[in-house]
Specification:
two-stranded antiparallel ribbon; 32% helix; alpha/beta; Peroxisomal Thiolase, Chain A, domain 1; globular
């Protein structure tokens, strides 16, 4: 076994109408990541991706970038809940020698193509518990996670302003990010005036359906050290897929998969939440940040709103959460943009939004009953 590392990162512009296919965007992001690393398509012998039937398969992207003979290819069915798992699988493939250079990507036309917010990617025909929920129009993620958020309000007295502080903080970070799709400053009054989506979620509590792609290049650490940028190492990873993936049956809707994945993650490293400089928390909704931030141990249950309100989740605080603006303000690339940002920060290359002295980054992925997390470290 050999240690692997991220050697390159690439992305396309994010927007509402790409005018390109997911295959074209995936290939563009992969080429950008390879160029960032100083490699070419012919160096690639492994490709991995995840999707929900809305993207191009790994072998198609391999061929598009000039990697016609892959020794390892992986297509995972899933959304943001498997973003960290897919990256971790690519690390494992390189470590065990299944391939030498792996490209991992997520590419989708999440705004101009099939849209999650309209239920257009819900499995058809309906199966499992969905066949009962669909009869009542209970078919899209903000409905499901909105119920979890209501439970958190009931148990911990969570207020509307508590959700608002999360949205406002990440938007403030996005103001520094020229790649973010939403950079207009947001105040608490503006947040509270936002239209309702599904109570308790207003429009600013919901991530941005986005067209775009992100890719990473992973290779052996020794090789990465000879390439263009400082490598980023994987220090720990953990997953939790609970309660059969049900959005209704978990016994405690005030916690998420992170209640299991968090302790599992910290058991695999000597690091602790206080060691994390950058936390890229999966923020399909503000409540996802709230529940997972607590579960990963950054603060006690019910205290996230105050943590953000007191400036402890931004520059000069305890940890910087989503310095790029996250899925709420940069764009919803199913969490792959979190990995891009973590690498950029650990390289010290985030320019005017750089977190000073960033050495350790947490990236989480998923919501509700399933998801995972990785801890990255700078290779100093």
């Amino acid at each position: 076994m050999r240690e692997a590392a991220i050697a390159g990162i690439g992305r396309t512009p994010y927007g509402k109408a790409s005018g390109r296919t997911p295959l074209a965007m995936a290939a563009a992001a992969a080429r950008a990541a390879l160029a960032d690393a100083g490699l070419a398509g012919g160096d690639v012998d492994g490709v991995a991706e995840f999707q929900t039937g809305d993207s191009a398969r790994a072998i198609a992207v391999g061929a598009a970038i000039g990697a016609d003979d892959l020794s390892w290819a992986l297509d995972i069915s899933g959304g943001g809940n498997v973003a960290c798992a897919t990256v971790a699988e690519a690390f494992a493939a390189v470590s065990r020698g299944a391939c030498d250079v792996a490209v991992v990507y997520r590419s989708l036309n999440g705004r101009s193509g099939a849209r999650y917010g309209r239920g257009e990617v819900t499995p058809v025909p309906m199966s499992g518990e969905m066949q009962f929920a669909a009869l009542h129009g209970y078919v899209v993620p903000p409905m499901w996670i909105g119920m979890w958020a209501q439970r958190h309000k009931h148990v911990y007295g969570t207020s509307e302003e508590d959700f608002g502080h999360i949205a406002i903080t990440t938007r403030r970070h996005a103001e520094r990010n020229e790649h973010a799709t939403q950079r207009t400053p947001l105040t608490m009054d503006g947040y509270l005036e936002g239209r309702w989506i599904y109570e308790p979620f207003r429009v600013y509590d919901c991530c941005l359906e986005t067209d775009g792609a992100v890719a990473l290049v992973i290779t052996a650490l020794d090789r990465a050290r000879d390439l263009r940028h400082q490598p980023v190492r994987l220090l720990a990873e953990a997953e939790a897929h609970t309660h059969g993936g049900s959005w209704d049956q978990p016994p405690d809707l005030a916690s998420m998969y992170s209640a299991q994945a968090g302790p599992r993650l910290w058991s695999r490293t000597a690091l602790r939440p206080g060691d994390v400089d950058v936390a890229c928390m999966y923020d399909c909704f503000t409540y996802t940040v709230m529940a997972t931030f607590e579960d990963f141990g950054f603060c006690p249950k019910g205290e996230v709103g105050r943590f953000f309100a007191d400036g402890r989740a931004t520059y000069g605080g305890d940890v910087v959460v989503n310095p790029h603006g996250g899925l709420l303000s940069e764009g919803y690339i199913h969490g792959m943009n979190h990995h891009y940002e973590a690498v950029l920060q650990l390289r010290g290359a985030a320019e005017h939004r750089q977190v000073p002295g960033a050495e350790v980054a947490l990236v989480t992925a998923g919501a509700g009953p399933f998801g995972g997390a990785v801890i990255y470290g700078a290779d100093r």
